[in-house]
Design goal:
The protein has about 350 residues and is mainly alpha-helical. It has 19 helices and no strands. It folds into three domains: about 60 residues, lambda repressor-like DNA-binding domains (434 Repressor (Amino-terminal Domain)); about 110 residues, Tetratricopeptide repeat domain (Serine Threonine Protein Phosphatase 5, Tetratricopeptide repeat); about 120 residues, Serine Threonine Protein Phosphatase 5, Tetratricopeptide repeat. The protein is elongated and about 85 Å long.
Length: about 350
């Protein structure tokens, strides 16, 4: 809570008016009003007397021993996302760092803010060099969260750090962090939680709970299949890689994932094989599915999951990021001289501005 809010709230709790505060401290009532609005701050020599008057200590007055609760964290992060959306990632990043300086030991907030920046950065079309610059800051934030957070926050932060270290090739650091994480509990309380909700007549809540877990499980299996396909290719078993990719596509269809998800594994296999024709065909299908997607909550398995109101905007940003990666990414260099590929890029860039 900022200083102006502390003064205002503690004054009201003490049953004092702004005029009474002013009289006690020998200042004007408008000066106290400005303190509470945050436009000015009390002189440092007045702080001890002000703290005594408000029946708090200096640490509380200056917010040294307070941390934002979960609701405040949510509000701060929403404000940061609004700034990123309206003014760009750089402005949102600077605001985040400013807020973290206010709460440098609040592990939960720092981890939440780092994850927010992590996700927002992926949805920008900045160059890989720019992303690398911000990634180093985000890694530092996860390290800070792991240092000051509670047990759960430390686990989450260490997992994200391991993921970042893996991506930048520092596998030893990643392994050390993963070794700190506990094995997944054999007891899953979610089915029991859903059963309790059902007995209470809260079937919609139970349905949403189970559907989100199902979606998470299917997406995890999809990721595992992509990794297995990649291993098969590295071991020289290209036919096995293709068959695994085909199973991934069938899984996505069977469990009512977005059409976009059915192309993920086959496309990765085509890219690894540098198969120009297959890559272009799959890219065309994947990008087309982003333009005309089905709604997840219209499917049989996920009807209790509400979709964000800005889903269309998210898909548009995702397509912009994908097109930028296709043009600049090294893994797509085998496509860059192909005329059909160039036409595909132009086609979907035009679709973005309509």
């Amino acid at each position: 809570m900022p200083l102006n809010s502390v003064i205002r709230e503690k004054r009201k709790e003490a049953g004092l008016t702004q005029e009474e505060i002013a009289d006690y401290l020998g200042v004007s009532a408008p000066a106290v009003s400005k303190w509470e609005k945050g436009s000015t701050s009390p002189d440092i020599t007045l702080l001890p007397a002000l703290a005594r008057l408000l029946k708090i200590d200096i640490n509380t007055l200056l917010c040294f021993d307070t941390e934002p609760d979960k609701e405040e964290v949510s509000q701060i992060c929403k404000a940061i996302m609004d700034v990123i959306h309206k003014e760009g990632f750089e402005t949102g990043f600077l605001l985040t760092m400013e807020k973290i300086r206010e709460y440098p030991t609040c592990g939960h907030f720092i981890h939440t803010a780092a994850a927010l920046l992590d996700g927002a950065m992926l949805m920008t079309d900045m160059s890989s060099g720019e992303k690398m610059k911000y990634s180093s800051h985000i890694i530092s934030l996860y390290e800070q969260a792991a240092k000051y957070g509670d047990e759960q926050t430390r686990r989450q932060a260490n997992f994200m750090l391991a993921s970042h270290y893996t991506r930048i090739g520092e596998s030893d650091k990643a392994q050390k962090l993963l070794d700190l994480l506990p094995e997944q509990s054999a007891i899953d309380k979610l089915p029991l939680m859903a059963e309790i909700l059902i007995t209470q007549g809260k079937t919609e809540k139970a349905g949403e709970l189970l559907e989100r877990r199902l979606l998470m499980a299917v997406q995890e299996i999809q990721l595992l299949l992509i990794k297995l396909s990649d291993i098969a290719l590295k071991e020289g078993h290209s036919q096995d890689a293709t068959k695994i990719s085909e199973r991934s596509a069938k899984l996505a269809e069977l469990f009512c994932l977005q059409e976009y998800d059915t192309y993920a594994a086959p496309l990765q296999t085509a890219i690894d094989q540098k198969n120009v024709s297959e890559s272009i065909t799959l890219l065309n299908s994947m990008l087309a599915s982003l333009l005309h997607p089905g709604e997840l909550n219209n499917s049989l398995l996920y009807r209790h999951i509400s979709m964000p109101s800005h889903t269309a905007e998210i898909r548009k940003k995702l397509m912009k990021v994908i097109l930028s990666e296709l043009e600049d990414g090294d893994q797509y260099s085998y496509l860059h001289s192909n005329e059909e590929f160039k036409e595909l890029i132009k086609k979907y860039q035009s679709a973005l501005v309509r």
